[in-house]
């Protein structure tokens, strides 16, 4: 059987070490993400991220994740790390997203937090401005992190997204639930962070490998 579906993009986010990066690349990550948010256990300095992104060059797209960053921080990240893509994971407006895209000439991913169908309407003003969305769960009460909380949302809500919308399905994915997530939402791309960690901010190569294996197994399952 042949299919004209694009291969699934897979982003491993919150990388901080060579070992974790190697595991992500060995598994076949299309994207590797670096978090620039001091409150996060995954926070990384631009020069360290630049060294890792250099090792990923030609193998995976490097994504710089920021939260309502000002131009000074973005200038520094872009100059030092040279990302392929910018992920905006805060309350950036469509105007701000457009400014950032124009200023750096880089593709922009806008994170949107989802709990109910009405949250998905939030993407409409960003259409034609950003290159891709990332649908994540709303952070649990009390969390200081807008992402990386290991919480998922109702994937069936994504059935309402207009066909052709490019997005990462994110939030609470792991080797145990990715098969079901792919079956329910059939997303063009997926993103994972805490589901491949042994402790907050500590990526576990064995969990990364298990995640890629689960993705492959589920694809085999669906093709059979
Ligand atoms: O991961 C973080 O610590 C983080 C902090 C601040 C903004 C964004 C953050 N993560 C962004 C991501 O793209 C995560 O991969 C995404 O939220 C999914 O995380 P998880 O539910 O842990 O898989």
TrEMBL record:
<keyword id="KW-0057">Aromatic amino acid biosynthesis</keyword>
<dbReference type="GO" id="GO:0004640">
    <property type="term" value="F:phosphoribosylanthranilate isomerase activity"/>
</dbReference>
<comment type="similarity">
    <text>Belongs to the TrpF family.</text>
</comment>
<dbReference type="Pfam" id="PF00697">
    <property type="entry name" value="PRAI"/>
</dbReference>
<feature type="domain" description="N-(5'phosphoribosyl) anthranilate isomerase (PRAI)">
    <location>
        <begin position="10"/>
        <end position="213"/>
    </location>
</feature>
<keyword id="KW-0028">Amino-acid biosynthesis</keyword>
<dbReference type="InterPro" id="IPR013785">
    <property type="entry name" value="Aldolase_TIM"/>
</dbReference>
<dbReference type="InterPro" id="IPR011060">
    <property type="entry name" value="RibuloseP-bd_barrel"/>
</dbReference>
<keyword id="KW-0413">Isomerase</keyword>
<dbReference type="InterPro" id="IPR001240">
    <property type="entry name" value="PRAI_dom"/>
</dbReference>
<keyword id="KW-0822">Tryptophan biosynthesis</keyword>
<dbReference type="InterPro" id="IPR044643">
    <property type="entry name" value="TrpF_fam"/>
</dbReference>
<protein>
    <recommendedName>
        <fullName>N-(5'-phosphoribosyl)anthranilate isomerase</fullName>
        <ecNumber>5.3.1.24</ecNumber>
    </recommendedName>
</protein>
<comment type="pathway">
    <text>Amino-acid biosynthesis; L-tryptophan biosynthesis; L-tryptophan from chorismate: step 3/5.</text>
</comment>
């Amino acid at each position: 059987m042949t299919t004209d579906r694009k291969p699934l993009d897979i982003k491993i986010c919150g990388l901080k070490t060579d070992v974790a990066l190697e595991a992500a690349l060995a598994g076949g990550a299309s994207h590797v993400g670096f978090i620039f948010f001091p409150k996060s256990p995954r926070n990384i300095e631009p020069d360290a991220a630049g060294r890792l992104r250099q090792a990923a060059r030609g193998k995976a797209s490097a994504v710089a994740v920021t939260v309502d960053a000002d131009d000074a921080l973005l200038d520094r990240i872009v100059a030092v790390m040279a990302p392929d893509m910018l992920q905006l994971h805060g309350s950036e407006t469509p105007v701000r997203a457009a400014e950032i895209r124009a200023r750096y000439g880089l593709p922009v991913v806008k994170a949107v937090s989802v709990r109910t169908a009405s949250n998905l309407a939030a993407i409409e003003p960003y259409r034609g401005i950003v290159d891709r969305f990332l649908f994540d769960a709303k952070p649990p009460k009390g969390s200081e992190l807008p992402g990386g909380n290991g919480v998922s949302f109702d994937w069936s809500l994504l059935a309402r997204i207009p066909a052709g919308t490019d997005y990462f399905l994110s939030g609470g994915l792991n080797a145990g639930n990715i098969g079901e997530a792919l079956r329910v939402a059939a997303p063009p791309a997926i993103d994972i962070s805490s589901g491949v960690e042994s402790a907050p901010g500590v990526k576990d190569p064995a969990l990364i490998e298990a995640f890629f294996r689960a993705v492959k197994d589920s694809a085999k399952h669906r093709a059979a």
